[in-house]
């Protein structure tokens, strides 16, 4: 039945921003040195005739979301898809909560991606993950507009007062009678631990620096630790070279331990992220055993492992994670594109979920609910999100219960993209004591307003 809280999309537009990285970022055997940011503005109307504008922003991380394509082809396809999704979103005649609109729009977005793959004669069709990344800015803008229409945080709209259907409609009968507010509270935590990303080619100490960058920011991991008070470290590994991965982990542990001892710190953690680089699960198990033998304390500090093997779980059914997950939680990231992949991952022994704003607010909220129901480990990861996209990501990290922390690496690689936002969100873009200050994320919608509209 129609509800007074329903909205409908009335107008959509987008713009692109381009930034060069201050230093290249290497992960999963790929190197990125620039970013294109998709900014979306969306006007919605309530059934009572009130209009509200929303804003969503996301990096077009084609090297991660569409690695099968070249840089030019992948990014070009994502920009072209943004144009198509603008048309699809504006044409949506659905009324409802933003999750209702996403439910209607996602199939249209996927069809648009398939059509675009054919018209551009792409050698590999645009993957669903890539479509979700482009769509995430549109979905964020709708959630943002919805909250602003009612003058509340969008996280206050995830209960039966605003939502037209319970979670069983999207997640299955075991969620009957439950709404998102059961799993995602409206009030943010005051602080969230920040995982500092150690890229696979990042200099670790002074001897690694070839050309020093004199921009006032650290050049090495050793310099970043005391500056930001770091206690969480995301170690990027390329996989495929056991000795290189082993030496990288052990060396990072040695340097971090040395610096933390100088700071009189005793509690810090690592996560190991392979970005699918392990050829098989046996590689992962052998590597972990080598690390445990060489540095037992370093091994004990490994909090979890992220996406060790190929993202297509259906084609990679032999690489089950049951044995590895008995050692540490094993988290899906690239593999997670919906409920069906989440259920398959659980069957294959994965015990954790990486939530990402770049997959869309609606998708992320639903996966956060499902993962909690299934008793899975939770973390919030990055796509080198600056500005409004980091505010969006931080809002998720501050609310999902049990979240292990947030990766926030734009401050390392593309700080210029966040410059217009820093003064308005103190402690969000500049880290002190190893944590992000998230209590401030209570504004209407997603909690951010574009600088040009401030």
CATH topology of the largest domain: TIM Barrel
Q: Output the number of helix runs.
A: 15
CATH H level of the largest domain: which superfamily? Enolase-like C-terminal domain
Query: Termini separation (Å)?
Result: 37 Å
What proportion strand?
Answer: 15-25%
Strand segment count: 12
The stretches of 5 or more residues where confidence is low (pLDDT under 50) are none
Per CATH, the class of the largest domain reads Alpha Beta
What does this structure look like?
The protein is an alpha/beta fold and 454 residues long. The chain folds into two domains: 7-164, Enolase-like, N-terminal domain (Enolase-like, domain 1, 2-Layer Sandwich); 191-453, TIM Barrel, CATH 3.20.20. The chain has helices spanning 62-65, 71-91, 98-119, 128-150, 168-171, 221-228, 242-262, 281-294, 296-300, 322-327, 339-347, 361-373, 387-397, 410-413, 419-422, and strands at residues 7-27, 30-46, 51-59, 191-198, 232-236, 269-273, 302-306, 330-332, 352-355, 377-380, 406-407, 435-437. Strands 4, 5, 6, 7, 8, 9, 10, 11 and 12 form a nine-stranded mixed beta sheet that branches. Strands 1-2-3 form a three-stranded antiparallel beta sheet. A hairpin with a 2-residue loop joins strand 1 and strand 2. Helix 7 (242-262) crosses helix 8 (281-294). The longest helix is centred in the N-terminal third of the chain and has 23 residues, at 128-150. The radius of gyration is 21 Å and the shape is globular. The two termini are 37 Å apart.
């Amino acid at each position: 039945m129609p509800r007074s809280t329903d909205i409908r999309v009335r107008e959509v537009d987008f713009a692109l921003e381009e930034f060069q990285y201050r230093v290249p970022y290497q992960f999963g055997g790929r190197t990125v040195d620039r970013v294109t940011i998709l900014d979306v503005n969306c006007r919605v109307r309530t059934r009572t005739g009130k209009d509200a504008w929303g804003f969503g922003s996301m990096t077009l991380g084609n090297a991660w979301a569409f690695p099968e394509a070249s840089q030019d082809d992948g990014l070009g396809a994502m920009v072209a898809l943004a144009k198509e999704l603008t048309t699809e979103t504006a044409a949506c005649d659905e009324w409802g909560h933003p999750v209702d609109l996403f439910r209607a729009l996602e199939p249209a977005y996927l069809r648009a991606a398939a059509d675009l793959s054919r018209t551009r004669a792409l050698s590999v069709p645009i993957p669903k993950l890539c479509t979700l990344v482009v769509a995430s800015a549109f979905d964020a803008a709708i959630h943002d507009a919805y909250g602003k229409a009612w003058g509340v945080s969008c996280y206050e709209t995830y209960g039966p007062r605003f939502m037209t259907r319970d979670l069983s409609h999207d997640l299955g009968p075991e969620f009957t009678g439950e709404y998102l507010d059961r799993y995602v509270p409206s009030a943010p935590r005051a602080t969230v631990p920040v995982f500092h990303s150690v890229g696979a080619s990042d200099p670790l100490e002074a001897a690694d620096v070839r050309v020093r960058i004199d921009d006032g920011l650290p050049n090495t991991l050793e310099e970043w630790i005391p500056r930001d008070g770091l206690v969480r470290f995301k170690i990027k590994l390329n996989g495929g070279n056991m000795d290189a991965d082993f030496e990288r982990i052990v060396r990072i542990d040695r340097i971090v331990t040395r610096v933390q001892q100088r700071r009189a710190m005793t509690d810090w953690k690592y996560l190991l992220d392979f970005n699918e680089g392990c050829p098989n699960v046996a590689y992962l198990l052998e590597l972990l055993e080598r690390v445990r033998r060489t540095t037992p304390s370093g091994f004990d500090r490994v909090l979890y492992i992220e996406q060790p093997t190929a993202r297509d779980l259906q084609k990679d059914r032999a690489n089950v994670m049951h044995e590895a997950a008995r050692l540490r939680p094993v988290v899906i990231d690239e593999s997670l594109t919906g409920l069906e992949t989440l259920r398959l991952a659980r069957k294959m022994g994965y015990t954790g979920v990486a939530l990402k704003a770049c997959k869309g607010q609606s998708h992320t909220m639903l996966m956060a609910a499902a993962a909690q129901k299934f008793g899975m480990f939770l973390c919030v990861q990055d796509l080198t999100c600056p500005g409004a996209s980091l505010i969006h990501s931080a809002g998720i990290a501050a609310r999902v219960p049990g979240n292990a922390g947030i990766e926030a690496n734009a401050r390392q690689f593309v700080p210029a993209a966040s410059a217009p936002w820093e003064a308005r969100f103190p402690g969000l873009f500049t880290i002190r004591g190893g944590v992000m200050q998230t209590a401030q994320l209570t504004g209407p919608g997603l909690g951010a307003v574009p600088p040009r509209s401030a």
